[in-house]
Amino acid sequence: MRTMPAQHVAAFHHSDGFIVDRVASFVAEGLAAAEQVVVIATLPHWSAVTRRLHDQGVAYGRAAANGSLVLVEADQVADTLTAGGEFDLNGFRATLQPFLKAGARVRIYGEVVSLLVQRGQIEGALALERLGHELAAAFDIGIFCGYHTSGARRLTSRELAAIESLHHASVSEEQHFHAVRFYQDRDSLARIVAQFLGEGFAAGAPGIVIATPEHRMTLEAVLASYCFDVPGLESGGDLIMLDAAQLLSQFMVGDMPDASRFRDAVIPLIERASRGRPGCVVRAYGEMVDVLWKAGHTAAAVRLETMWNQLARTHTFALLCGYSIGHFYKDAACRQVPGLHTHVWSDGGPAAIAN
After folding, report:
1. What DSSP designation does 184 have?
2. How far apart are CA 98 and CA 142, in angstroms?
3. Separation between Cα atoms, residue 129 and residue 263, nearest integer Å
4. pLDDT, tens digit, 9 for 90 and up, residues 156-204
5. What is the largest distance, in Å, between two alpha-carbon atoms of the chain?
6. CA distance 183 to 322
């Protein structure tokens, strides 16, 4: 966790197991580094973390007894912050003050922000995150924040983007499929995309294709050779074909994609394809990132991949991205791209990436 100073990291999770594992590792690493560890969590989560620490052979009881491990109940802190209907950061500052000393080796895990979101206090959560960001830098400490994304009050994609902007990094419990295919020629790409979409059609899943005119034409021919009725799929709303450059133009501001405009352009497509069907997982193939990469806008392509990942936390879809090998490896930034995907799709099929 402390691979660099002043880290402020957010973790988005939908199950307790994921966050419990992460927090237990965060605590164990801090204790092993002789840091003081402060955990601001709900009691159920704390109980689960201590069980995990016990299984790992960590003497958390001794650490708690000598003061190197401190538990603060998140519910109590949240109650203090929102007492009287007014949001007040002074209570949080007072809670942390004993641990914030110049030169002190400290790391803090907190899920008060998640509780505030569940209570409808998103502005309070953002204010708390801004304070946390300042403290991480001012005292050179690591702060790790947990957000439950499947609670009664779910985060919107805009709220997720706002939260992520206040952190140095984020981790998430992947629920989506976001693969990348590095292709050499149009025909090999079309076969892979046709396989990806065809598996979906066979299972009753609709498809979205966002590609260049040449690639759409080749893909239509391959799908037809696989005995799919392309015009019928399109007229029935189970296949939506779009031009990559045209869709890009709807949300690019200068040389960078705009997050709000991206959501406004893409969310209606996903909703149109799923047509309100519960449990429907739309399969989408996109090469807008490839269009950007070929034009030399590598930072924009990386940003667009991040936006797709953010959108996957609020909408259900499986995404396959295509990159031309000839253009891709000409830029040093190519090392960032695999880490933004869950799988690499080779000729043998998709293989999970160990991030």
Report:
1. S
2. 16
3. 24
4. 767 888 898 899 887 776 557 899 998 989 999 999 999 999 999 988 8
5. 71
6. 7
